[in-house]
Write a structure and sequence with these properties.
Elements lengths: L1 E10 L2 E11 L4 E5 L6 H9 L6 E6 L2 E2 L5 H7 L1 E4 L11 H6 L12 H11 L1 H5 L10 H15 L3 E5 L10 H13 L3 E5 L3 H4 L5 E6 L2 E7 L3 H18 L1
Parallel strand pairs: 3-8, 3-9, 6-7, 7-8
Antiparallel strand pairs: 1-2, 1-4, 4-5, 9-10
Length: about 240
């Protein structure tokens, strides 16, 4: 569904990512972790077209979308939910959700069904449907951003730090929602620092360090592989 090969990207002349490769199939969730500044968000933005890569390729269903404008990538079926719950603050909750049908104009009849699914999972959105998004809490705005993406029904969903500004008690319901969404055939990529909370909901994991892939494995093996990597680094420092 999504295949990234040897992707290199940054900001201006400053390189941030070097030769990043990953693959996510339909129905799978990939967890991407790493320290602050490792390049995780830059990777998401480069895949979605917000940052133009300087090397490598991004393939969506076998079609190259490398460097494609974000709105074109969205029309092709790729959706990025940015961190810090980016919504339209002056619009109501309902109107924010309705914005999702812009990516599926030929399927407006499906909007009501998708809307009811969102309301069933997150009833707080139904309760506040007429309120402006700016009046919601940070966690509620994050849920609203995910709801808007769900309405669009993308083939690939990129979710950057869903826990940002959200109470940790809200993270498991959000992750459960994403897990069930993936079962419908959507490929999902989650960037998250809360690895232990997120890991059980994902299939594969990748750790980025200093703009490069430091580790890639099945999610069930993540703890063991991280421990091995930590031990190797400790031994290397001891030798120095």
């Amino acid at each position: 569904m999504l295949e990234v090969s040897n992707l290199t990207a940054g900001y201006g002349d400053i390189p941030v990512l070097r030769d990043i490769s990953l693959r996510v199939n339909a129905g799978e969730i990939l967890l991407i972790g790493g320290e602050n500044g490792a390049g995780k968000s830059t990777l998401m933005r480069a895949i979605a077209g917000f940052n133009k890569p300087t090397g490598g390729s991004v393939m969506l269903n076998g079609v190259e979308i490398t460097g494609m404008a974000p709105e074109k990538a969205a029309q092709a079926g790729l959706r990025l939910v940015l961190d810090n719950h980016r919504v339209f603050p002056e619009l109501t909750v309902y109107d924010n959700l309705r914005m999702g049908i812009a990516a599926r104009r030929s399927d407006r009849a499906g909007f009501q069904n998708s809307l009811e699914e969102i309301y069933a999972v997150f009833p707080i959105l139904k309760e506040k449907t007429k309120q402006r998004a700016r009046d919601l809490s940070g966690g509620q705005q994050q849920i609203l951003a995910l709801g808007q993406a769900f309405i669009a029904q993308p083939k690939v969903l990129l979710c950057d730090e869903p826990s940002m500004g959200v109470a940790q008690m809200l993270l498991p319901p959000i992750l459960s929602f994403l897990r069930n969404w993936a079962k419908s055939g959507t490929a999902v990529v989650i960037v998250e620092q809360h690895l232990k909370i997120t890991q059980p909901y994902t299939d594969n994991a990748m750790i980025i360090r200093r703009g490069e892939v430091a580790l890639a494995c099945a999610s069930v093996d993540l703890d063991k592989r991280l421990a091995q990597m930590h031990e190797a680094r400790t031994q290397s420092y001891a030798q120095v």
